[in-house]
Amino acid sequence: MEIDQAIKLAKNNDQKAFNFLLDMFWDDVYGFQLKRTQNENDAEDITIQTFSKAFDKIDTFNEIYTFKTWLISISKNIHIDLLRKEKNSITQVISNDDQEVFEVLDGAPSPEDKLITEQHLAKLLRDIKKLKPHYQEIINLRYFQELSYKEIAQELGEPMNSVKVKLLRAKKLLAEIIRRN
């Protein structure tokens, strides 16, 4: 399959085309992020987010650019956004006259936060049960049992790229269910 052909098929929601593009460009995006983050887990998470966003917005891809360049741009922007969020959530600097005071945010949840979290978790579990069983299983393995992609692939006896694509699809379907409710 040619890249141009795969992009056209992907614009029509062809799963094989998505798999082809993921296989073709995974190493490029992952390698780019690994150099930027110096952390394999962060690089993998950002790469997955990159492909998820790219596949959601594939209709906006302009063929005058190369697909790889488009993916790298998306990946770079996701990383920059994550750095901004991280920077804002870790500390706040408050200047008072000539002294600087660092206020570290308290990460411990309040009793109200705990109750809200429990309610959200119960709702999330109900929404997950609306997915097909194989999507429920992959969500459970990744987010509740906290298995790596490699461990999930071994558990299911499937290639790692298939696991990644299934997880992307499961998250997308779950987000649609949540939006509808």
From TrEMBL:
Residues 27-87 form the RNA polymerase sigma-70 region domain. Residues 125-174 form the RNA polymerase sigma factor 70 region 4 type domain. InterPro entries: RNA_pol_sigma-70-like, RNA_pol_sigma-70_dom, RNA_pol_sigma70_r2, RNA_pol_sigma70_r4_t2, RNA_pol_sigma_r2, RNA_pol_sigma_r3/r4-like, WH-like_DNA-bd_sf. GO terms for molecular function: DNA binding; sigma factor activity. Signal peptide: none annotated. Pfam families: Sigma70_r2, Sigma70_r4_2. CDD domains: Sigma70_r4 (cd06171). Keywords: Sigma factor, Transcription, Transcription regulation. One of its GO terms (biological process) is DNA-templated transcription initiation. Belongs to the sigma-70 factor family. ECF subfamily. NCBIfam families: sigma70-ECF. This is Sigma-70 family RNA polymerase sigma factor. It comes from Allotamlana fucoidanivorans. The lineage of its organism: Bacteria, Pseudomonadati, Bacteroidota, Flavobacteriia, Flavobacteriales.
